[in-house]
Design a protein that fits this description.
122 residues, mainly beta
Length: 122
Amino acid sequence: VQLQASGGGLVQAGGSLRLSCAASGRTFSNYAMGWFRQAPGKEREFVAAISRGGGSTYYADSVKGQFTISRDNARNTVYLQMNSLKPEDTAVYYCAARNPSYSTDPTSYNYWGQGTLVTVSS
């Protein structure tokens, strides 16, 4: 499956962004989806994940209550709504696909998007 992430940009602290990740090539609903991020000089870290049907989600403690992951299987797209953004949320955000269930381990994901940069200014 090919993944294309978009929606990143520059935002002031306290602002919001919605990231999108469009999938193509295979049956999107067969894959659990995850969002990860990588800040400069740091390892890639788990942000959020969603099950194949969208009925189950999981968040890193650092974004719980701040970010919301969702998916639209009819549109082959997964989203990450990010609210109350902080400078420490600055990173390249990646979407990833895994079959059949989600995981917090980035090495277990089979397919990755190219990443979209989110910069939060103070």
